[in-house]
Amino acid sequence: MKKNFNYILTALLFCLLTVSCQDNENWRIIPYEPEPEAPLEGPAELRIAGDQQGWNPEAEVIGKLYPVKNDEGEMAGDYAGYVHLNSQFKICPNASWDGAYGVGDDTPAGSMTVGDGLNNLTVSEPGYYYVKCNINDLTWSAGVVNFGVIGSATPGQWDEDTDLVYDETDLKLKVTITLTDGEIKFRANDEWNVPNGDFGAGEEEGKLAAGAGNIAVSAGTYQIVVDLSTPDYSYEMIAQ
């Protein structure tokens, strides 16, 4: 009887261990892995080909628009960038005319479309522009932002801008200027309230940030070079 009891006890212990191991297998700890960000819908960049650069979407040096997040912080087909325009252009999703965005005869203002034989997108005057578009909604806009440098260190103090000049060879804005010890900023259209038209000191030396504080400078003659052609906005002061 005692021998049978030992057999039964051994069998019960074996079953208990088996269930426990199975439970441990079923309830093992799985490391947390955050969900990846939603993939970008659309090309990594859009190219602006038009009469400002010889109608060449394959050009090595060309104005571009880059993906930006919408007001909800999502990637939803929005692009934006600073480019120089003369009058007419198209927005190209690659280095060719394939799939280029333009307008048809009945396309509403502020809209664009894709297809053969389209008319060009247009602006009313040559200048430096902040261009936005959405490739899902097929909308676009362009606002003039002709930049200058202003501040206590400039000849015009805080009252008058010194214009920056666009250089088509590298897409940058430049001016040679004599400064005093003081501060500067970059603004568009000789005003402070122009959307996307106010840049100050970024978090790193030589970087720019929208709506940021003044940039401290030392007296001297410099060539100031501002690069807004990519989202990594920057400036350089080259002593002359």
Keywords:
single chain; 240 residues; mainly beta; 7-stranded antiparallel beta sheet; 6-stranded antiparallel beta sheet; 19 strands; elongated
Describe the fold and architecture.
- The structure is a single chain.
- This protein is mainly β and 240 residues long.
- It has one helix and 19 strands.
- The protein has a seven-stranded antiparallel beta sheet with strand order 7-4-1-2-3-8-9, with no helix packed on it. Strands 10, 11, 14, 15, 16 and 17 form a six-stranded antiparallel beta sheet that branches. Strands 12-13-18-19 form a four-stranded antiparallel beta sheet, with no helix packed on it.
- A hairpin with a 4-residue loop joins strand 12 and strand 13.
Average pLDDT confidence is 89
Please state the CA-atom Rg, rounded to the nearest Å. Answer: 30 Å
Strand arrangement in the largest pleated sheet: 7-4-1-2-3-8-9
Summed up, the helix count is 1
Encode the helix/strand succession as letters.
HEEEEEEEEEEEEEEEEEEE
Helix content: 10-25%
Low-confidence blocks of residues: 12-27, 35-39
Assign an overall shape.
Answer: elongated
Distance between the termini: 107 Å
Number of strands: 19
Q: DSSP strand (E) fraction?
A: 35-45%
Largest beta-sheet details: 7 strands, antiparallel
Broad structural category: mainly beta
